[in-house]
Specification:
about 160 residues, mainly alpha, about 85% helix, about 0% strand
């Protein structure tokens, strides 16, 4: 790629991170739903349990969690990389710090899975608590991220809101 080509696409790199993160936010909410359903299966009995098992919620929750973990790490690194490419520096502020915190928390939540599979209820409750915090931070990140996007649109494209 020529330097002119790279310069021409740099402003558009700003959109990959927010698009990925909004999709990831939706995935996180869906994973939370699957986790709740999986927990219902664990405590259900009789016909209700038989019916809930058909939904394969635990398997779907585990698969979605794996996707979210990978995309969260890649999205965090990607967002920081694009910021650095476009500005020559990172802006250390609440959005970056919360994003890094979410990435750390999701790694810890994922690391608890082997303990949960052995029936450790403390690990399960910690996993749930960490993920609720992550979803809450995600909602806040969505708001601050849109504020950042507004500034980028104003500075790069002259679009004001």
């Amino acid at each position: 790629m020529s330097p002119d080509t790279i310069e021409s696409i740099k402003p558009y790199l700003n959109f990959f991170h927010p698009i990925l993160m909004w999709a990831l936010f939706g995935f996180a909410i869906y994973a939370m739903y699957l986790g709740i359903q999986s927990r219902k299966v664990r405590y259900a009995t009789g016909e209700e349990k038989k019916e809930l098992i058909k939904g394969k919620f635990a398997i779907k929750h585990h698969q979605m969690g794996s996707i979210i973990l990978a995309l969260m790490v890649l999205g965090t690194i990607g967002g920081m990389a694009v910021t650095y490419i476009n500005n020559g520096k990172l802006f250390v502020g609440p959005h970056l710090l919360a994003g890094l915190s979410m990435t750390g928390l999701i790694a810890i939540a994922a690391s608890l899975v082997p303990l949960m599979q052995r029936g450790n209820e403390t690990a399960r409750l910690t996993h749930i608590s960490l993920n609720v915090v992550i979803v809450g931070l995600f909602g806040w990140q969505a708001v601050t991220g849109m504020q950042i996007m507004q500034r980028i649109l104003e500075n790069v494209f002259g679009i004001t809101f």
